[in-house]
Specification:
heterotrimer; A mainly alpha (about 350); B mainly alpha (about 130); C mainly alpha (about 120); A: 13 helices; B: about 130 residues; Helix Hairpins
Chain lengths: ~350, ~130, ~120
């Protein structure tokens, strides 16, 4: 029952996103969309997925889009022509897809083909072969570790891509000017700064808890990395980008991103050197179960490091680009008024 | 049949809404958001296929016999993270496009490209 | 004893849900940004708190109880701060309260420095 209500609300929010022209409202609606789908995932018993969607879709994605629309403008220009051909294509495709779903098994049926091939082996043998209660973590980190390796490399590549596109060289006098403005603003933002200072240690602690508790409940490397990065982003938003640059060394963050991927690959190579297959954790220790636990711990640690540092890198570069654009505009205005 | 296939039909509706936003709207950020809606509809499709009536979350505990299928959860975890990676890269491309063309509307960017192409052709003819 | 616990937690859950619904109605019906935000800020924090207290009464495990206590503490801390930050940002960007003919407010708005 509750999933029917949530899905209907999702369709209503999506139609509202089509109709609105103010990009700020559209980004907020996208955040609401992410949160509603996270609630839907909880109703479907997918707790790990709901955790990741709430952290990533409702948190980081909304934040990055907000930073970008401060740079690109808030209003969308209305189209001059009516998009009838697009509507026609969409209706035809939708009709064909609905015709295709008529053969699908009904929602919740236990004898659907999806439940009968590889999943019984994962559910039944996971405890003896790997020994951790969370089946999703055991499949993600051990049975299908190679896919997770590809995912970590994709995140790392996105970080490199953002660095290539948006890297900005900072000058010394610009830093001093921004810092003096930042200090004078302490009176204005007193309440939020003090509350954030109280909360940020707890956010870090929660990220570490989620990282190591992923074997026993929902959690794991991705969610922990995102929560860790969001604490650093909160600090950077409240206390100014230059203060955050002094605390978080940019070179160190980029190094940690690369080291996370390297750690993941090294676990695989050590398994090869010990006589097993790539990313086969049974050979990492004398007891196979201990080897599995050690392998899962190390690769989740690598995943957490890479995800946290890449999200911090992406946010810092977007924000620095914005500051750079505003600084350039101010310099141009001063020049044109001086001439 | 309506209740049994309701999830699948909502998935098709959301997918088509996302596709419509990508095709019909000119603003680049709106297109990225349409792509996000499309991706999320695929996630909903997989996760609602994984649910088993009377099952619980796939975390082993005493006294539970029926678990929901954990394999689609793993696939969708990877997909969510890859989705945010491509969205972040797309957003930084939009920032650079705004700096170069001073606009993020598809029609205006196409117009500026056409004018530049015309002026280059004219310069070649004169030279 | 069981039925007393169930009735007690049911009462808290119902009061919490009613507060959240009334906050939503206030969001739709109030005329101005500041009044709308006041309605949602107050009722959402208290409503979420009541729902958490209702769940705390029902919990059997000490670990679940401790986690719910921590969530309640953070909700009570973060809710009012968020309302304060929203109102401050709106005031700073020039959203004037609807029925205000107070000259001092407009003077104060002109004197606040602009943030880079």
């Amino acid at each position: 029952m509750i999933d029917i209500v949530l899905l209907t609300l999702l369709v209503v929010v999506a139609i509202a996103i089509i109709r609105m022209k103010d990009l700020f409202a559209v980004v907020m609606l996208t955040g609401i969309y992410g949160l509603l789908s996270a609630s839907f995932f909880v109703a479907m018993d997918a707790v790990d997925v709901a955790f990741t969607e709430a952290a990533v879709g409702a948190g980081i994605s909304t934040l990055l889009m907000l930073v970008v629309i401060t740079m690109t403008g808030r209003k969308e220009k209305p189209t001059r022509h009516k998009p009838f051909s697009a509507l026609f294509v969409v209706i035809i495709t939708g009709g064909l897809l609905i015709y295709g779903t008529l053969d699908m098994p009904y929602f919740g049926s236990a004898d659907a083909p999806i439940h009968n091939h590889t999943s019984p082996r994962y559910i039944n043998d996971s405890m003896e072969e790997i020994g951790i209660p969370n089946i999703v973590t055991s499949v993600l980190a051990s049975y299908r570790a190679f896919d997770t390796f590809g995912e970590v490399v994709v995140i790392f590549t996105a970080g490199i891509g953002v660095l290539t596109l948006l890297c900005v060289a900072r000058s010394k006098e610009y830093e001093a000017e921004v810092e003096s403005i930042n200090d004078s603003m302490h009176q204005q933002h007193l309440v939020i700064r003090i509350v954030a200072k109280m909360l940020i240690p707890f956010i870090f602690l929660f990220a570490l808890y989620v990282q190591f508790h992923g074997d026993f409940g929902p959690g794991g490397g991705f969610q922990a990395g995102v929560i860790f990065a969001s604490a650093i982003i909160l600090y950077a938003m409240l206390f100014g980008l230059s203060t955050a640059h002094k605390i978080i060394n940019q070179t160190l963050i980029q190094l940690i991103a690369a080291l996370g991927v390297l750690l993941y690959g090294s676990v695989g190579i050590v398994s090869l050197m010990n006589g097993g297959n790539f990313l086969d954790y049974n050979v990492l220790s004398s007891n196979p179960i201990t080897g599995q636990h050690l392998g899962i711990l190390l690769i989740e640690w690598g995943v957490g490091c890479t995800v946290a540092s890449v999200i911090v890198v992406i946010f810092f570069n977007l924000a620095a680009r914005r500051a750079f654009q505003q600084h350039k505009k101010q310099a141009q205005d001063k020049e044109s008024s001086a001439c | 049949m309506l209740i049994g296939l309701f999830n699948d039909w909502i998935v098709v509706i959301l997918m088509m809404i996302g596709l419509y936003i990508v095709i019909a709207h000119g603003n680049l950020i709106k297109k990225l958001i349409g792509l996000t809606i499309f991706q999320t509809s695929v996630f909903i499709f997989y996760i609602s296929m994984a649910k088993v009536d009377g099952g619980t979350a796939p975390i082993l505990a005493d006294g539970i016999t029926q678990y929901s299928n954990p394999l689609p959860h793993v696939l969708i975890l990877t997909a969510i993270v890859v989705g945010i990676a491509t969205t972040a890269l797309g957003l930084s491309l939009v920032v650079r496009i705004k700096e170069t063309y001073n606009s993020i509307e598809e029609e205006e960017i196409q117009q500026q490209d056409n004018e530049e192409q015309l002026s280059m052709n004219k310069a070649e003819e004169n030279a | 004893m069981d039925i007393v616990i169930t009735i007690c937690s049911g009462f808290f859950l119902l009061v919490g849900s009613f507060l959240c619904i009334s906050g939503g109605i206030g969001l739709l019906r109030f005329p101005d940004f500041y009044t709308r935000m006041h309605a949602v800020g107050v009722t959402d924090t208290l409503g979420a708190g009541m729902i958490l207290v209702g769940l705390m009464i029902l919990s059997t495990d000490f670990l679940v109880f401790a986690k719910l206590v921590m969530v309640l503490l953070f909700t009570l801390l973060i809710g009012p701060t968020t309302s304060h930050v929203l109102a401050k940002a709106a005031f700073h960007n020039g959203v004037i309260p609807k029925d205000s003919n107070n000259l001092r407010q407009t003077e104060e708005k002109e004197n606040t420095s602009s943030i880079l």
